[in-house]
Amino acid sequence: QVQLVESGGGLVQAGGSLRLSCAASGSISTIYVMGWYRQAPGKQRELVANSTSGGTTNYVDSVKGRFTISRDNAKNTVYLQMNSLKPEDTAVYYCKFVGLYGSTVKNYWGRGTQVTVSS
To answer: Are 60 and 75 in contact (CB under 8 A)?
Structure first.
């Protein structure tokens, strides 16, 4: 079994920073994509940022220049550094890995961590 565990969420004032972490445990041999999604109340889950094994990173326009995704492949861990946070960044943040389990490519999701930005 593979499990993703997020940490680092919390309450922060607008303009502040938080760093999210997501670590995978279990028999996942290759992680192709590590990413962060978020879901605000009443809204659909959206991609925030992702990082591919080839070195490509992608960001939703609303976080460009403020958020940075990074990964430590040796630790099967992905990070999201969030700076200049805004109230509209308030959401539950989920990490997602796309990886190889045995001979099958699978999607794995974390349970989410709450980020609340006060104005």
So the answer is: no
Residue 26: predicted pLDDT: 81
Name which of 39, 38, 30 is nearest 104 in CA terms.
30
In this prediction, what percent of the chain has a pLDDT beyond 70? 100
The answer, yes or no, to whether residue 2 has pLDDT greater than 90, is no
Query: How confident is the model over 98-114, as pLDDT tens digits?
Result: 988 888 899 999 999 99
- According to DSSP, the β-strands at 3-7 and 18-25 are antiparallel
Edge-to-edge strands, sheet with 67-72:
3-7, 18-25, 77-82, 67-72
Evaluate whether 110 touches 96 at the Cβ level (below 8 Å).
yes
Nearest to 9 by CA among 34, 52, 35, 38: 38
Question: Helix or strand or coil: residue 61?
Answer: helix
| DSSP bridge partners of 91 | 115
